[in-house]
Amino acid sequence: MNPIYHQLDFGITCIDTEHMRKDFVAAYLIEDEGRAAFVDTGCYLSVPTLLATLDAKNIKRENVDYILLTHIHLDHAGGAGELIKYLPNATVYVHEYGAAHLIDPSKLRAGVIGVYGELFFKQFLGDLIPTPEDKVVIAKDGDVITLGNRTLKFIDTPGHARHHVCIWDEKSQGLFSGDTLGVSYREFDTDQGELIFPPTTPVQFDPEVWKDTIRHLMSFKPKYAYLTHFNRIEFTSQSADMLIQHIDGFVEIAKTLENQNNRHKAIKQKLLAYLLEIATKHGVILDETQQIKLFKGDLEICAQGLGVWLDRN
What is the pLDDT at residue 3? Predict the structure, then answer.
């Protein structure tokens, strides 16, 4: 296997897990003084790519100390139970609200199959296996771990999901942000910079909490966000303002369609129109068919999450 990865500076590699399509879901490999850590794993089907990346970079599997999970959504953590089998010295760090679902993923499995069906689960996720309890460590807010000569700090970051943490890397002055600092695909980059929008995934989307989390993260004065979707971007106060603006925009769409017949379809259509509009204002020159294809992977789950939020509130 020839893995696809992007070598960044500061000993960080962005690995394309090739989930659904290229340049959609990243995992990261951090190296320092001969030691290594993965941040997120992609799904079960991504594990061969992660292991092939180690091989391509001549990193021994016993030199991987950590699997650091931003949260337990399956495009981020679905491969943890499989990956840990090949890393004899690694432990898995996860938010306390996600740990039980790693150890016994039966509810996660049932939930995904219930929404997307058995065929989708097998075709795009593959499997979901337990992570041994003795390999799981709770990542609490403020906890610091050492990898080689660098320190990595966990930050509790609710809003996208209650079981979400971000990881502050002092060496790069960057945040491994999972989904908390939004989604930004490189195809939408223009001379105005990166286009960023929120993944309002079910079931714990909370817009006001999320906005507070973004403001808290900006107190670290990050230079970079290492996004799962997709790759590293420079993250400025303008980036944070854009993300907050679009959280509000998504919420406004949901509120206006709360009592609409076939609400889910209506929200989905309005979200697409909103995304196409902000892409145009951002100077994106891809034709509409290409844009729709790129937005498609997020539309369904964003609409679902907004619907769950409406019902909860």
Answer: 94
Instruction: Spell out a b/e string for 180-205, using b for 16 or more CB atoms within 10 Å of the CB, else e.
Output: bbbbbbeebeeeebbbbbbbbbbebb
Q: Give the C-alpha separation, 147 to 154, whole Å.
A: 13
Contact 233, 225 (CB under 8 A): yes
Domain ranges of the chain: 4-235, 243-312
Whether this prediction's pTM lies above 0.70 is answered by: yes
Q: What's the rounded Cα separation, in Å, for the pair 183 and 213?
A: 16
Distance CA 97, CA 72 (A): 9
Domain 4-235 bears CATH identifier 3.60.15.10: yes
Query: What is the separation, in whole angstroms, between the first and last Cα of the chain?
Result: 47
pLDDT (average), residues 165-192: 98
- Residues 82 and 44 sit within 8 Å (Cβ to Cβ): yes
The residue among 168, 166, 123, 170 whose CA lies nearest residue 150 is: 170
CB distance 62 to 89 below 8 Å: yes
Burial 146-167 (b: 16+ CB within 10 A, else e): ebbebebbbbbbbbbbbbbbbb
To the nearest whole percent, how much of the chain has pLDDT over 90?
94
pLDDT of residue 11 exceeding 80: yes
